[in-house]
Every structure is written in structure tokens, then in C-alpha cells.
Amino acid sequence: MYFYLVRHGQSLWNASGRHQGWQDVPLSPLGELQAERIAQRLKSQTFDYMFTSPIKRCYDTAAAIVQAQGRPLEDLTVRETLKEARLSAELEGLAEKEILRRWTPEQKRLFREDYSFKFPDGESVKEVMARMVEEFQAIAALSEEAFPHPEEEPDASADNDPEGSQVATGRDAAVPKTQIPQKSALIVAHRINLQLFILYAMDALDSIVRYQGNIDRMEISNCALSVLEVNLKGKQPYYRLLTVNDMTHLTGLTPPKPSAEEAPK
User: Fold this and answer.
1) What is the pLDDT of residues 179-213, one digit of tens each?
2) 2 Ramachandran zone, left/alpha/beta (phi>0; psi -120 to 50)
3) Which DSSP category does 261 fall into?
4) Is 8 left (phi over 0), alpha (psi -120 to 50) or beta?
5) Distance (Å, rounded) from C-alpha 14 to C-alpha 28?
6) What is the layout of strands, in order, in the sheet containing 2-7?
7) CA of residue 68 relative to chain centroid, distance
8) Number of other CB atoms surrounding residue 230 within 10 Å
9) Which of 38, 111, 190, 239 would be 201's cystine partner, CB 3.0–4.6 Å?
10) What is the Cα–Cα distance from 82 to 100, expressed in whole angstroms?
11) What pLDDT is recorded for position 16?
């Protein structure tokens, strides 16, 4: 099964540098253009399943993709477990500098170093990871189609096929090369959710936790496309990362100029 992972378009609070969490912040004008671009990028891609976070910036991005395909919005399934990570309800809407000003030195240290740390009104990174992994595995289980697991059905021809089905990058990732019919799922979610899941799928999350690494070393930009292939037939889920943070469809995109009514006086 293929996972087409899309982060929502830029929101108004992305643009102003404010922490969002679960707040229903709409897309900015640039975010709306980004959503149009990813919608055109995926217009001809067939999705068996389409899922989105219920938060407006994700839902509106996903709706643009669905509508570009000429499909009804009823084909889009809202999943509560795809929600943004909630650091702390009382911090939502604040600028990053203000959040850091409020934190004690110990809170800053724990937030950087301990992925089990959480505020009383929030959730930890580990909790976000757990719900994301459970959600993605549940979505993958909807399909019995999967590419051959290397421990089950090794393909001797793969080594002699450097341009075959092993890796797809750039725009090729929108139509992965494979000989086996597979189902695909569109998932529109938030940056940290997608970062955590991709790192988990690549067996990299434990190392980041152990060595106090920075999740943001892997960027997931607004309306960027990442593609994973997953097989659940083996003893453990087996993932292949086909592309990550592909932004080629956003080339040349600039924020629209404000109208006369919107321009500052």
C-alpha cells in the first residue's frame, strides 16, 4: 500500500509565527495557492482512501485535492487521531518567543531531551508518535495488497534493475513503479505528525530519542509531498520511503499581493 503524505498549506498563524496546536486556523492566501498546486499535482492519482485531520487547515487542503479530482467531499474521511500535536492548550496562539519566555530553564531542557515530557494540558512527543503509528497501521490494514517483503519473496532481478521499482523520486513518486497492483491512501496531516511517522518507519526515531536528536532535522514543508510504501505481511511492518518533502509543484509560488481593501492604510 502507498501512503501519500501531505502537510497542510500555510495557515495564517504559520505566516505570523504563532503556535497553533488544535486551534482551527484557516489557510493564508499563500496556503490556498499551495493547496491548489498540490491538488493539481495529484489530480490524476487514484486514491482508494482519503483521510484528513479534522483541523481546518488540513481539511481545506484535503478538500482542494478531492475537488480537483472531481470527487465528492463525502469521499474524504476525517480522522480525529490525525490531529496536530497538542503541546499545551494555554500556549496556543502565542508567538514562539513568548512561549520560550514563559518556560523555565528546566522545562526547556526537558522539552529538548525527554520525549516523555508533557505539560498538564498537553501531550508528549511519545504519545503523539503512538497515536500516529496506530493510525497509520490501521489505514494500511485496510488493504491486503502489498509489495513482496524481502524476507518472504526476494526478487533476484532487483539488483539488475537500477531504474526499476526500487526508488522513485521527484515527480515520479506520484506514480510509483511496481508490477503489483496496490492500493493507495492520501493522508493530509500536520508537520510533527508526519515527521514522527516517517522517522518511525525508517527505524530512526529510537536513535533520535536516545541521542537527543532534533526531529526538525527532517523538514516537512507546507503542502510538500512524501510517499511511503508499506507491507504488513511480515512479522513487522516493512516500509520503504520513496520520496520526502517534495516541493517541485510549488516552484515559483509567491504570496499573492493584498487587494486594495486588504492593503494596510
Assistant:
1) 455 789 999 999 989 998 898 888 887 776 665 56
2) beta
3) T
4) beta
5) 8
6) 77-78, 49-52, 184-189, 2-7, 225-231, 238-246
7) 20
8) 22
9) 239
10) 26
11) 81
Backbone φ and ψ for 11, nearest 5 degrees, come out as -100, 170
- Reading the block at residue 166, the C-alpha cell is 526500487
Fold of 2-250: Rossmann fold (3.40.50)
Beta-carbon contacts of 78 under 8 Å, excluding residues fewer than 6 positions away, are 51, 52, 53, 54, 59
Q: Which three cell numbers stand for residue 95?
A: 508567538
Residue 203, CA distances (Å) to 89, 136, 207, 234, 263 in order? 31, 15, 8, 16, 48
Instruction: State the pairing for strand pair 225-231/2-7.
Output: antiparallel
Domain ranges of the chain: 2-250
CA separation for the pair 108, 11 (Å, rounded)? 26
DSSP-derived secondary structure for 27-86: BPHHHHHHHHHHHHHTTT---SEEEE-SSHHHHHHHHHHHHHTT--GGGPEE-GGGPPP-
How many Cα atoms are found within 13 Å in the side-chain-facing hemisphere of 135?
25
Of the chain, the end-to-end C-alpha distance in Å amounts to 52
Contact 229, 132 (CB under 8 A): no
Catalytic residue status for 190? no
- Per annotation, catalytic residue among 36, 84, 92, 135: 84
Q: Is 149 part of the annotated catalytic residue set?
A: no
**Candidate list 8, 92, 135, 190, residue with the active-site label:** 8
Helix runs in the chain, H state only: 12-16, 29-41, 56-68, 96-102, 105-113, 125-140, 191-201, 205-210
pLDDT of residue 60: 98
B/e letters for 143-180, b = 16+ CB within 10 Å, e = fewer, are beebbbbeeeeeeeeeeeeeeebeebeeeebbebeeee
